[in-house]
Amino acid sequence: MSIEVKSLNKRFGTLAVCDNLNLTIPSGELVALLGPSGSGKTTLLRIIAGLEQPDSGSVHFHGEDATFDDVRDRNVGFVFQHYALFGHMTIFENIAFGLRVRPRSSRPSEAAIRTKVMDLLKLVQLDAIASRYPHQLSGGQRQRVALARALAVEPKVLLLDEPFGALDAKVRKELRRWLRRLHDEMHVTSVFVTHDQEEAMEVADRIVVMNQGRIEQEGSPDEVYDHPATPFVLKFLGDVN
Ligand code: ADP
Question: What sequence ranges are listed for the domain ABC transporter (predicted)?
Fold first, then answer.
């Protein structure tokens, strides 16, 4: 599902957090929103998600205006850094949750839920420990469960906000590969917020560099890295290197 953001504005008080943003994300792309803390990445993601409304401008999914659609009607999956799993539920039940709370008319049968959850657990190679509880898992395993849970409802769009931020470098690297693999296998369109340029370069098809509510540059990782379009991009990439 393609995503289009048009002339999007959002202020908090006098601060322009999204400053006339225009962005087109083709169906099937994995896009990183990259920029320093406070540049507006999370706000843009939340507006795409339907968790926040813009002051003006619009968000289109597959050509249709979804700006004021309820979050539940948007067919999006989320993975957030602090979007904790339910501690009192097994990892199987955590993944099944989104399917169980569907309205009765669109709720799969118990057998279909079981098949779906076990398929997802196999995909993230956690099927052998389906009956464990989150506290019995490592941080990396927990985020693999979070990815599987987000994908259980078969979203067309996957939105991730610093999903691996709290983990150490080795686990982060491993999770990037999982994200790439799941994105490709599930045929979703993904938008991924990070302040870590290495993460963006490694995992994304396209990088959108943000600064003070504006897009400084967008392009493939190679384009952005080899040809920084503005002094800000040059400095940002240089600083983190
Ligand atoms: P990023 O994800 O790039 O760190 P954010 O979108 O989280 O940026 O925040 C951009 C700016 O907007 C920051 O200065 C932040 O403090 C401010 N901000 C975010 N959410 C709110 C809010 N609900 N109320 C007031 N200010 C906010």
Answer: 3-237
> What are residue 80's phi and psi, to 5 degrees?
-115, 155
Question: Quick check: pTM over 0.90?
Answer: yes
Q: State which of 17, 46, 209 you would mutate to test the pocket of ligand 1, scoring each by most atoms of that ligand within 8 A of its C-beta.
A: 17
DSSP 24-35: EE-TT-EEEEE-
Own/partner contacts of 7-13, CB < 8 Å, gap of 24 or more, are: 7/56, 7/57, 7/58, 8/44, 8/47, 8/54, 8/56, 8/57, 8/58, 8/59, 9/54, 9/55, 9/56, 9/57, 10/40, 10/43, 10/47, 10/52, 10/54, 10/55, 10/213, 11/55
Q: How far is CA 197 from the centre of its chain?
A: 16
Instruction: Out of 42, 43, 195, give the residue to mutate to test ligand 1, the one with the largest number of ligand atoms within 8 Å of its CB.
Output: 43
| ipTM of model | 0.97
Residues 6+ apart with CB under 8 A from 66: 50, 59, 60, 73, 74
Cβ neighbors of 1 (< 8 A, separation 6 or more) are: 27, 61, 62, 75, 156, 157, 189
In this structure, of 61-75, 104-118, 127-141, the range with the lowest mean pLDDT score is: 61-75
